[in-house]
């Protein structure tokens, strides 16, 4: 049951991420960092995709993805189309991996130490979903702020 809920949440929110990025009037707007804002929408998009591809794709799905977290926060001016391709690839990987998880997998400990301790894979996937949603809200705010 949790697998179905997680698939629904990740599908919904990754689709919304794709819509938000596509809604920018210009590719340059994605990379604006107005006063009082720490990260551009492009930076947050790269971070979300890297985060999910690592914690779900590489760790749980054995995809071989190698994360470069520093580049997620330093890369600039990635074209909109490239971001959309990245989101689509991330969604495909995340949904495939989660669909392959059993109830036992979700109850077992997540294979990597996260934060300051251990937690179940199901708990960590819920955390990743809320992390995605948190940054998705920031991207929506950024888009509305920079296009007003």
From TrEMBL:
Gene3D superfamilies: dinb family like domain (1.20.120.450). Residues 33-139 form the DinB-like domain. Coiled coil: none annotated. InterPro entries: DinB-like, DinB/YfiT-like. It holds the Pfam family DinB_2. This is DinB superfamily protein.
């Amino acid at each position: 049951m949790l697998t179905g809920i997680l698939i629904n949440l990740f599908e919904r929110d990754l689709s919304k991420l794709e819509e938000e990025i596509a809604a920018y009037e210009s590719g340059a707007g994605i990379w604006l960092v107005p006063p009082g804002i720490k990260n551009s929408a492009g930076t947050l998009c790269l971070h979300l995709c890297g985060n999910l591809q690592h914690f779900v794709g590489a760790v749980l799905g054995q995809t071989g993805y190698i994360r470069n977290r520093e580049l997620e926060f330093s890369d600039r001016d990635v074209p909109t189309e490239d971001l959309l391709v990245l989101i689509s690839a991330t969604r495909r990987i995340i949904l495939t991996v989660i669909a392959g998880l059993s109830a036992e997998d979700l109850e077992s400990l997540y294979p990597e130490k996260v934060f300051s301790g251990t937690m179940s894979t199901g708990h960590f996937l819920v955390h990743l979903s809320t992390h995605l949603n948190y940054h998705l809200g920031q991207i929506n705010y950024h888009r509305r702020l920079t296009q007003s």
